[in-house]
Amino acid sequence: MAENGAARIRLGMVGGGTGAFIGYVHRIAARLDGDYELVAGALSSRSDIARESGRNLGLADDRIYASYEEMARAEAARKDGIQAVSIVTPNHMHYGPAKAFLEAGIHVICDKPLTSTLEDARALAAIKPKKGAKFLLTHNYTGYPLVRQARELVRSGALGKIRVVQAEYPQDWLTNAVSSKQADWRTDPKRSGAGGAIGDIGTHAYNLLRFVTGLKTDSLSADLTSFVEGRKLDDNVHILLRLQGGAKGMLWASQVAVGCENGLQLRVYGEKAGLEWRQDNPNQMWFTEFGKPKQLLTRGGSITVDPAPSMNIRIPGGHPEGYLEAFATLYSQFAQVIRGEGKAVAGLLPSIEDGIEGMSFIAAAVKSSQGDGKWVKLSEV
Amino acid sequence: MAENGAARIRLGMVGGGTGAFIGYVHRIAARLDGDYELVAGALSSRSDIARESGRNLGLADDRIYASYEEMARAEAARKDGIQAVSIVTPNHMHYGPAKAFLEAGIHVICDKPLTSTLEDARALAAIKPKKGAKFLLTHNYTGYPLVRQARELVRSGALGKIRVVQAEYPQDWLTNAVSSKQADWRTDPKRSGAGGAIGDIGTHAYNLLRFVTGLKTDSLSADLTSFVEGRKLDDNVHILLRLQGGAKGMLWASQVAVGCENGLQLRVYGEKAGLEWRQDNPNQMWFTEFGKPKQLLTRGGSITVDPAPSMNIRIPGGHPEGYLEAFATLYSQFAQVIRGEGKAVAGLLPSIEDGIEGMSFIAAAVKSSQGDGKWVKLSEV
Amino acid sequence: MAENGAARIRLGMVGGGTGAFIGYVHRIAARLDGDYELVAGALSSRSDIARESGRNLGLADDRIYASYEEMARAEAARKDGIQAVSIVTPNHMHYGPAKAFLEAGIHVICDKPLTSTLEDARALAAIKPKKGAKFLLTHNYTGYPLVRQARELVRSGALGKIRVVQAEYPQDWLTNAVSSKQADWRTDPKRSGAGGAIGDIGTHAYNLLRFVTGLKTDSLSADLTSFVEGRKLDDNVHILLRLQGGAKGMLWASQVAVGCENGLQLRVYGEKAGLEWRQDNPNQMWFTEFGKPKQLLTRGGSITVDPAPSMNIRIPGGHPEGYLEAFATLYSQFAQVIRGEGKAVAGLLPSIEDGIEGMSFIAAAVKSSQGDGKWVKLSEV
Amino acid sequence: MAENGAARIRLGMVGGGTGAFIGYVHRIAARLDGDYELVAGALSSRSDIARESGRNLGLADDRIYASYEEMARAEAARKDGIQAVSIVTPNHMHYGPAKAFLEAGIHVICDKPLTSTLEDARALAAIKPKKGAKFLLTHNYTGYPLVRQARELVRSGALGKIRVVQAEYPQDWLTNAVSSKQADWRTDPKRSGAGGAIGDIGTHAYNLLRFVTGLKTDSLSADLTSFVEGRKLDDNVHILLRLQGGAKGMLWASQVAVGCENGLQLRVYGEKAGLEWRQDNPNQMWFTEFGKPKQLLTRGGSITVDPAPSMNIRIPGGHPEGYLEAFATLYSQFAQVIRGEGKAVAGLLPSIEDGIEGMSFIAAAVKSSQGDGKWVKLSEV
How many CA atoms lie within 13 A of D312 on its CB side? Predict the structure, then answer.
């Protein structure tokens, strides 16, 4: 049961069979706070793997499905059918399941990016969910308590008007041509869409920037590169941003930056103060008011803005929480939404609209890069 | 269900009612990998709180108990009774429940330190558990992947013979006289035993040193201080250690070190190499071979000793895991032991023997400090 | 005397009167290794300040000059006249003195950027120095031992072909409109030239990138901004770079990034390895070979490439050297050049050609920014 | 000349011939601010080396001496004789020259520790210097601006009453048995005195603690170890301290801590605040008021206590100063004392009394360690 005594939400999963990475992460996130129970799955497009994976996870045989369509139909018809579903397939397989479950009245938790094309994203937004089914896009980095804190600091005016934003997400795992379950679909335009690094990690950096600053992007100028021989999608992303209200930004994402594991970092500078946060040590954040010493804010420590319950701080400062806890916070707060108790987290959970903005970001970047870096408005892709 | 399809282990809890900190941590740890289901509890010595707490956690009314004795009796008699119990009460209330459940043939997961007196600890070790019931002491910091890595490095000989060990655990939350559920029992000799900081956090630092180096302590010289007016137990611990084989150590634990949240840190120096690890950024560890550049080992990153499955690395390097994951690793690996699959983790899980050693460490330190710092052998307390 | 027993080089200074910052730095740099003795100066364009400043520095009255022209003439005529001169005036006052002293056969040490316009820079390069007078441009960050080490690593092939370069230099001292001796000329186009932050600090970042990677820039796309009301020159610089050979770069410089003191940082990623260095902790550098742990190289510590004498490591690793030592290394190695012993440092000391490249960088960035970020070739400005 | 126009102080040097480390450091320190000119030396006890070393440093032949006695006599008799002398010999050769020059009316700058025995130290204190000759002991770490800042913070009451002090100075260069000019005398009781690591670096850590906290040590309990086969002096130092007023301390010094270069670190915790400083990144210091976020104070940055001129901050925050600058500050401030302008630095420069205290610290530690760690009062050795 959940810590608050509420019954667990019955959960299904599409994708996430044996060997998948992100499906495993979603399952831990669903379990951590006790709000969900996985009871059904269409875990692979290959029925043998689907079956084996389902059994490994202890699913009842009659709730292991060979396709998401069948699962949506069957579960919607059951009295004890799933109430929510997690979609953890490659990008091009987000749209179909999301549509099917929303139309079946089942809440959808969908990995990012929203879809593989902007068209699909818009089509998804146009769908009328049955029975008020809700949608969560797992831009999981927004679940970190100090990311919430950063957003609060900006909203409170502590930084003053924002001037400069530096976002980056360097990795090095695609430094060489590699082939693996994880690498293959991410470098395949058919499954990933038109963006490589920009879709896989650039959207995370963009979403983080958007979430914390609250600023929309007016236009961008991009230089996407594919460094590895034969790779079809970009593995390095250099972008200049012009944000609404006059702020300027830089965004760098790379899968070939040797020595970087998951260096997601956001730096925001306003007229009055600045802040800096890194994902690989997420329990600390620098905050500096102009002319005063730098302050190291810690998750659960002494902070200038009172921690809101929506920050979901589970353990005291100095005891690190990590990636899985941030992910779990999205799950548990979406559980609040599902149970009709989502007021406290209104505006905090990534939505279809955020997903469309992310897809517009990708489309604009690809268009700009193909146009030799000309400035492209996000509103015009 | 667990990720491997095994049925969940039915779990009870003693202590951990509303407002308790460590019980909540144990529940998350039990859930995270899907190996346990909480179904019964004697969550408070006050029956009204016990009932309310149980209901909040969704326990069935007939499995909410007013006392651990009743719970041990009743659950042992049920067909669907608990298979394991978590004991998360103040120190002086470890011995009673541990004895009761072991003698009822129910596996015991017990918070540290083992008991409040060395006598109780030894008495517990003398008990004959029914039906082979197992015991886990939650020295949770040993669950961190890089702590396991550190131990492996020492065992592999990479450091050569150990010469110097520096362990410390500074905090600042008891800087002033405070009263709270958490503070009160920790500063009360009746509930904590003879040690304050030394029992609460000093034992963690000692256990970490012991776990990583594998070295027993021959003798120690201690200077325990209580800085806050009226406090009955030590809030600062200064200890010199002489380890078996000739290594020397220092151990510092403090609850009045302003600016320190949970600064648990271990530094080990051998004839050939040295390593340094801090709990507040646990996904990194320094490793230096003499005459070569310092290396920053990362959890799940490129490391010199291959990561063993027993390190339980859930997500790739650069995505931080934290305190709860380390705690959960003890739970999930104890689940392996319970299921008879514990071979892979043999020697890694803290036991009653480790608990006795921790109690000897406390007793020796108190005795040495009372004797103006004379060297006291751990084997003679 | 110098440590090697050579007689001190007689030095003059243009600019650097009371209240000036960089003149003081040059004087310390000249003294530190014992290679120079300041004996003459035209320290201010205001003759009273020139006189007072000269006396404060202990100059003989007849070697305190009211103008650099007079000083060049008089000193060239003296038997014990200066052998070298340091030019530490605002940018627009570099060209005149540099020309005068080179034509008087006196070696020139000139602060950066080379001049205030590209035309001046080219004119300076066209001058025929008398008696083989040499020229040093004080891009002082190239004097740091680990910057030299980084360059060596790149040249040795340890990084493989360079792919991505991230250079940045954020400060915050011009966050508000301020007026001071230091701020005024830097924000005045007449004295600084067409660039604000880009000339003052952007050129440092650019030069560092150039020095370490050895790569010329093919073209750039810039977005220069002036955030502070009424400021005439840029205070924030966002640039995308296309380097020769296919590498891509980003360069950020800012004077309004609250919380940043002098955050000069260079990150270079190649096909085989990556490195990262920050000026504010210059005695460390990260070096990572793909698939291996990160290494922390230290100045004077254990490093993969043997330290060359040209790194000028004065004290052992762990004892920090800083900004002044790096600056002094340029001075002492230029002394070697002056004495005809400059072979060991050939190619390491910033030259007029580096200065022209820096001016081209500024001109191209201004042109690109005025052209809405169109790509501008450095060879075409 | 000095920056303030004062004539340079004529300086001699005892020790510091070719191959010596600390003599070179003293010479840079003497030059950096322009306050001294080296004109005479007895640079080695071997006359051939003395002559060659002197010539390499450009000394006139008649001011290169074969012995310090001769130098003291001859220079005292010259009209242009040295005004001050730097003594940079091994420990056992401090007393003789110091006595000779003080009695010749020449100011003495002496490397630490003061002497090789406590007796010599006391004898030195009993000497009546001629013509008011002054004495400086180069405990150079006290010259760091942030160490001065730390002292100011303690004195201002910002930390409240001090409770706990943790000082450490780990190195690794004597991990193995080595032979070199630097290593040999440091591990030879005849030249070093009764202390190895404790004299070479332990005294630095002790002096730093003493300088910052202002607290005298009442008594200590020590465990000194020599880990390397055949080494006659300690290479690892573990000490518990009881400070006057009730504060407790730990001091660790080691020459066998693999991976540590010069890890001098001081942490001070009071009733109201704590601070932490490391020598290897000396331009930053942590300062935390209880219940507030940690602050990162920077040299020359925004600090809570106004920087005093005595901090001698040469360049702005973000531009690192290092070891040589701190050393040079002692030299330039001693020049102020010599010139009769030392009021501003009264109490800041290490004196003979500090040297005696350091020798008492060594003697007490050796005595305690020989007595199996019994507490020894500093006042009773």
Answer: 26
pLDDT band at C305 (very low <50, low <70, confident <90, very high): low
> DSSP character for C218?
E
pLDDT in tens, A307-340: 777 889 999 899 999 999 999 999 999 999 999 9
Test mutation, B163, B220, B258, chain D, max D CBs within 10 A: B258
Residues contacting residue A147 through CB under 8 Å, at least 6 positions apart:
A141, A208, A211, A212, A266, A277, A282, A326
Integer angstrom CA distances of residue A193 from A200, A319, B103, B280: 10, 39, 61, 39
Low-confidence ranges of chain B (pLDDT < 70): 1, 303-306
Q: Identify from A295, A297, A298, A306 which residue to disrupt to test chain D contact, counting D C-beta atoms within 10 A and taking the largest count.
A: A295
Report how many Cβ contacts below 8 Å link chain B to chain D: 117
CATH number given to C9-133: 3.40.50.720
Closest Cβ–Cβ partner in A291, A292, A295 for D294: A295
Average pLDDT over residues A202-207: 98
User: Which residue of chain A is at minimal alpha-carbon distance from C221?
Assistant: A373
* Beta-carbon separation of A257 and C275 below 8 A: no
- Partner-chain contact B240 D166, CB within 8 Å: no
Q: Which residues of D112-121 are buried (b: 16+ CB within 10 A; e: fewer)?
A: bbbbbbbebb
pLDDT tens, D53-95? 999 999 999 999 999 999 999 999 999 999 999 999 999 999 9
SS3 content of chain A, % helix, strand, coil (to 5): 40, 20, 40
Distance between B304 CA and the closest CA of chain C, angstroms: 8
Are A290 and C176 in contact (CB < 8 Å)?
yes
For B145-166, the pLDDT digits (tens) are: 999 999 999 999 999 999 999 9
What's the gap in Å between the CA of B318 and the closest CA on chain C? Answer: 12
* pLDDT mean across residues, chain A: 95
- Residue B59's DSSP bridge partners are none
Is D9-133's fold the same as D144-315+352-370's? Answer: no
Q: Which residue has the higher pLDDT, A307 or C137?
A: C137
> Which residue is closest to A295 within chain D, CA to CA?
D295
- Closest Cα in chain B, distance from residue C296 (Å): 5
Q: Burial-class residue B114 by CB neighbours within 10 Å (0-12, 13-18, 19+).
A: buried
- Give chains near B: 3+ CB pairs under 8 A: A, C, D
pLDDT band at C150 (very low <50, low <70, confident <90, very high): very high
B interface test, pick of C153, C286, C289, C295 with most B CB neighbours within 10 Å: C295
Q: At what angle do helices A352-370 and A203-213 cross, to 10 degrees?
A: 120
Architecture per CATH, B144-315+351-370: 2-Layer Sandwich (3.30)
Q: Hey, are the CB atoms on D261 and C298 less than 8 Å from each other?
A: yes
Lookup result for tokens 């230096």: B288
Is residue A305 scored above 70 in pLDDT? Answer: no
The pLDDT, as a whole number, for residue B38 is 97
CATH for D144-315+352-370 (3.40.50.1000, 3.30.360.10, 3.40.50.12780, 3.30.420.40): 3.30.360.10
In angstroms, the separation between the Cα of residue C144 and the nearest Cα of chain B is 19
End-to-end Cα distance, chain A:
45
Superfamily name and number for A9-137: NAD(P)-binding Rossmann-like Domain (3.40.50.720)
State residue D250's pLDDT score.
98
Q: Name the band, by pLDDT with cuts 50, 70 and 90, for residue C19.
A: confident
